[in-house]
From TrEMBL:
It is found in: Cytoplasm. This is Dihydrolipoyl dehydrogenase. It comes from the Bacteria. Coiled coil: none annotated. Belongs to the class-I pyridine nucleotide-disulfide oxidoreductase family. The lineage of its organism: Bacteria, Pseudomonadati, Pseudomonadota, Gammaproteobacteria, Oceanospirillales. It catalyses: N(6)-[(R)-dihydrolipoyl]-L-lysyl-[protein] + NAD(+) = N(6)-[(R)-lipoyl]-L-lysyl-[protein] + NADH + H(+). Binds 1 FAD per subunit. PANTHER family: DIHYDROLIPOYL DEHYDROGENASE (PTHR22912:SF224), DISULFIDE OXIDOREDUCTASE (PTHR22912).
Length: 478
């Protein structure tokens, strides 16, 4: 029998590696199992987020946005940039370097905190044992506690089987070495819009095919409507109610068939990205006698504190219910490590922010106005456009708005929604406000620095009662 640990974490993504580090910091003998093989043939940490998700996509989004700014916006500011060109291969190499630095950084954090890194595929066995297999060899480890953080993988659909270099998932879309002339994207969710934005900025003719009739239904309807308008203005052709029925590879082209309100349609692309969601990864994860139960959708069943059906075994992140977000996984990892160490810990699932890193960014936390209506909650709202913001004008970023939703009776903030430059940074104000049970009046009474983009949040809070200063108010002052 190999070593025994207080905690074994399976998966070194943003949930797993954070859980392992926290557990070790709390004095628990901790190991973390990972099998992800990087480009150089070695095991790398960071999971989807660092390797093929959050971080590489943001590197490409930032580079492509700067390219568009240099092409179209610098001249407005008096900057003569000349004929700006993008070296796609160099952009990709920079992305790879960032990923390598961060994944290597986790290995350093493990060493600094005393976490034992186990290389291979982890499998939960009965009796809180973990089998780690690599290259045909395996070892079994005992643990007092197991944390499953195996993450998720892209969903594939029968009409568009992946074909190397032509029909790819989100991972493949991060590896293009040149800009496709005609790019198809299946799915108008977060990933589809971000990847579509990257290549749209670099010159692709981007068509997004979305089966649903509504655009970003999880976002407040006013914010979603404005976002759709802005992306269309940038050149993205977003087709709603377009259900893909088949595809055919013809040489270096992909012919996609879909149906919409006008019947059967057909469109030809040079590349096709399939972004229809992700599913929990449990392949080979659970032994037959592990006792860990899955729900009807294949997620590991857990309670509010991430306990599975087996005492001492926890599961966090994308493999359990809730939004598939890196920061949600990390917070669950911290909560579970604290619980294992004997501390009282819980997580507020009503205050998890979401961000779409298009330009402008879209960010939200808490309820949408339509959520509140569906639950029979009477609300009052306040919104403020960045077009009326001095800092937004100076930044050449006047598109979008900030919106606050508050309980009509108590004034408690129920949600915040922003589309605008740096929305992903500003949404933290809404998260903090909700964590502290703030009212809209609390934000309205807060002194904000001037000039800042965040002043739009302040004005939105003031607007809840019709008291916005820099906007004509429709409500009567009290």
């Amino acid at each position: 029998m190999a070593d025994k640990f207080d905690v074994i974490v399976i998966g070194a993504g943003p949930g797993g590696y954070v859980a392992a580090i926290r557990a070790a910091q709390l004095g628990l003998k901790t190991a973390c199992v990972e099998k992800w093989i990087g480009k150089e043939g070695n095991v790398v940490h960071g999971g989807t987020c660092l390797n093929v998700g959050c971080i590489p996509s943001k590197a490409l989004l930032e580079a492509s946005h700067k390219f568009v700014e240099a092409q179209h916006d610098f001249d407005d500011m008096g900057i003569q940039a000349g004929d700006v060109k993008m070296d796609v291969k160099k952009m990709m190499a920079r992305k790879d370097k960032i990923v390598k630095n961060l994944t290597g950084g986790i290995a350093g954090l493990f060493k600094a905190n005393g976490v034992t890194a186990l290389e291979g595929a982890g499998k939960v066995l009965s009796g809180k044992q973990v089998e780690v297999s690599k290259d045909g060899e395996s070892a079994v480890y005992e643990a007092d506690h197991i944390v499953i953080a195996s993450g998720s993988v892209p969903v594939e659909i029968p009409p568009t089987p992946l074909t190397e270099g032509l029909i790819v998932d989100s991972t493949g879309a991060l590896e293009f070495q040149e800009t496709p002339k005609r790019l198809g994207v299946i799915g108008a969710g977060v990933i589809g819009l971000e990847l579509g934005s990257v290549w749209n900025r670099l010159g692709s003719e981007v068509t997004v095919l979305e089966a649903m009739d509504s655009f970003l239904p999880m976002v407040d309807s006013a914010i979603a409507k404005e976002t759709q308008k802005l992306l269309k203005k940038q050149g993205m052709d977003i087709k709603l109610g377009a259900r893909v029925t088949g595809s055919e590879v013809k040489g270096d082209e992909v012919v996609v068939k879909y149906t919409d309100a006008n019947g059967e349609q057909e469109q030809v692309f040079d590349k096709l990205i399939v972004c229809v969601g992700r599913r929990p990864y449990t392949q080979g994860l659970l032994g037959d006698d592990a006792g860990v139960k899955l729900d009807e959708r294949g997620f590991i069943f857990v309670d509010d504190q991430c306990r599975t059906s087996v005492p001492g075994v926890y599961a966090i992140g994308d493999v359990v219910r809730g939004p598939m977000l890196a920061h949600k996984a990390s917070e669950e990892g911290i909560m579970v490590a604290d619980i294992i160490a004997g501390h009282k810990a819980e997580m507020n699932y009503d205050a998890i922010p979401s961000v779409i890193y298009t330009f402008p960014e879209v960010a939200w936390v808490g309820m949408t106005e339509q959520d509140a209506k569906a639950q029979g909650i009477e609300v009052k709202t306040g919104a403020f456009p960045f077009a009326a913001s001095g800092r937004a004008m100076a930044n050449n970023a006047t598109e979008g708005q900030a919106k606050i939703i508050a309980d009509a009776e108590t004034d408690r903030i129920l949600g915040m929604h922003i589309v605008g430059q740096h929305a992903g940074e500003m949404i933290a104000q809404g998260v903090i406000a909700m964590e502290f049970g703030s009212s809209a009046e609390d934000l309205a009474l807060t002194c904000y620095a001037h000039p800042t983009m965040s002043e739009a949040v302040h004005e939105a809070a003031l607007a809840v009662e019709g008291h916005a200063i820099h906007m004509a108010n429709r409500k009567k002052r009290k």
